[in-house]
Amino acid sequence: MAAAATSGAVLNGLGSSFLNGGKSKKSQALLGSRVAGVTAGTRKSVVVAALPPKKSWIPGVRGGGNLIDPEWLDGSLPGDYGFDPLGLGKDPAFLKWYREAELIHGRWAMAAVVGIFVGQAWSGIPWFEAGADPGAIAPFSFGSLLGTQLILMGWVESKRWVDFFNPESQSVEWATPWSRTAENFANATGEQGYPGGKFFDPLSLAGTIRDGVYIPDTEKLDRLKVAEIKHARLAMLAMLIFYFEAGQGKTPLGALGL
User: Fold this and answer.
1) From which domain of life does this come (predicted)?
2) Whether the Cβ atoms of residue 229 and residue 219 lie closer than 8 Å to each other
């Protein structure tokens, strides 16, 4: 009986609100049922697998209220470290939209950071003066470039907008002017923001192609999701710094002494 009582105390401790970040009543109830089973069978050995603690955006902190560990962030999103001090993600619909916006802005920021460094290293022209420099390569007038971008980007962004609210609706034949390749735009992973497939994953980094059919690899995709969102956030922060530097007439390469 003493062993059963000790096991029950340990399991109760694991199911406490302190170790569960003040949430997860479901997990506490599940542990409670296990405690009952232990007390009923006094001589049964119980092996408890310790779950890895959820990482926090504040180093060394694992819980402590909505500021540190909000209950609406359950760790299911890639790169979730409990950062939502303004409570923007309380509504699941808004949380889904904010994650989509973070992905898109982060991907653009990553492309912009590389373009800024490569462009200045190649031409020697600061990125915030490149468009107005007489030596800039501009085969089109500003009006033509702006009109073309609005048309092309408007078409792509409108399709992405519709697909967000009606997933996989933009991969059907009538949605593309080249109906024979409509299957290339199908969502191979079934997850919003990560279409995969032969068109969106040509190097098969998150899947394999067998008999001409793209098969996503969940384990690889999960690792790449976390890596991407970390790089995206770093790139967005870098762009913010670039803007402040540009306001002082400085460039990223100049700030590095290059």
Assistant:
1) Eukaryota
2) no
